[in-house]
Amino acid sequence: MHELLARDLEHLPDLLGLTTDQAVRFLADLAERPVAHRTAPPGEGQGLPQAGLGLEKALAELARRWEPGLSASAGPRYLGFVTGGATPAGIAGDWLTAAYDQNVSSAGDSSASDLEKETVRYLRELVGLSEDHGGAFVSGATMSNTVGLAIAREWVGEQRGVQVSAAGLAALGRVTVLSGTPHSSVGKALSVLGLGRTALRTVATLPGREAVDVEALAAALAELDGAPAIVVANAGTVNTVDFDDLRAVAALRDRFPFWLHVDAAFGAFAALSPAHAHLTDGLDLADSVCVDLHKWLNVPYDAAVQFTRRRDLQTAVFHNESPYLGAPSPADPDFLHLTPENSRRLRALPAWLTLAAYGAAGHGEIVVRNAECAAALADTIAAGSAFRLLAPARLNVVCFTLADDPTPERLAALRAAVTDSGEAFLTPTVYAGVPALRAAFSNWRTTRADVTRVAMALATAAAGLD
């Protein structure tokens, strides 16, 4: 064994203690460190280490060169994208995932697969899906949508008498995918799956909304003259967290043949809030569902889950044929037969541990508190003169712009000023043709005091534009 490996193995408990100390120092400073950096710290142009430093010196080098430039994306005022932090149990689960180092490809050598199955059941119950929905962990919402749409592609083939997973896309022909306000990952998934980005047709939305107009969707389906299609519904859009009427969309299947995929990446967690649970009504009627866990479940990157009613079609797409892997069981296939990956880390463990630690009630409190924070920021913006809301804060995202002259350049300058203040980080968007900013509340640490600081940073930055 290499001498540095042997030495680190001998002193492993002490070295893991040093690692813990370094992590604790970072987390202790999380609420006050600059939330984001516009430029990364420069590297020193060093080549690949040949001799090696050993873990203790490598940790010190990491802290010196790279840690100062890391964002506080796990902290309470990082409001860009839809980014959760990591609960204490989530962090512990992720550390143990690395320590256990389980490959959850099959159930033949450990209980890891059973832990994932239990976690999937927890999550299914948490967001209100039926027992008919089977699930598996994937890396994020993009992969969850990709898996769901791959199963949908196989379903379209089934309707046309073609097994796409065997015969290929050439045997399938053109497929139409309909959605009101699809997330960008849907187009990416269609590209990866060979259906093509142009297969996606956007359908009219309700006036002043991002929710699909169900009558317009019905008309678009009628135009297909009975051809099977894929409908991507939204449970929480990016800009305004708008929800399609899922039950009404699902009811159209009585008249038209289509696979219903619901992108509920973070919107599924509205089910945990008594004031917002109605928004997810009908989610259990979906054929496949995307739920992203490193958003509102607040577990570390990367973690998401995909659900579907048609595990048989899922296995047809993703099964791996090899004697050493074994054939997939029709009733209970190993996870390697359900997702693009064969080798998979135990992503379920942080989710299992945080759900076991805090339960539905604890995670529901996070959702409710985040929604209250979003409403408080929206109220502050509406009461002032520097900004204007572009949509109501329906759940956890505030979409707003400058009250005067909201050009892309002024919005970019405003955002840069807020970032440079170190107080907050927000991401840009365009809503109804207007350049805007989004503040997405999804971190378990965020409180009303953080809302006050964000509002003050925005006011200061806006005043500096004049």
Description:
The chain has 466 residues and is α/β, with parallel strands linked by helices. Among the domains are: 70 residues; 247 residues, Type I PLP-dependent aspartate aminotransferase-like (Major domain) (Aspartate Aminotransferase, domain 2). It has 15 helices and eleven strands. It has a seven-stranded mixed sheet, with helices on both faces. Strands 8-9-11-10 form a four-stranded antiparallel sheet. A hairpin with a 7-residue loop joins strand 8 and strand 9.
Question: Quick summary of this structure?
Answer:
The protein is of the alpha/beta class and 466 residues long. The chain is built from 15 helices and 11 strands.
Task: Provide the fold topology.
Layout: H1 3-10, H2 12-28, H3 55-65, H4 88-100, H5 112-127, E1 134-138, H6 141-159, H7 164-167, E2 177-179, H8 184-192, E3 200-202, H9 214-222, E4 229-234, H10 246-251, E5 258-263, E6 288-292, H11 293-296, E7 304-308, H12 311-318, H13 348-383, E8 387-389, E9 397-402, H14 408-421, E10 427-431, E11 434-440, H15 448-463
Parallel strand pairs: 2-3, 2-4, 4-5, 5-6
Antiparallel strand pairs: 1-7, 6-7, 8-9, 9-11, 10-11
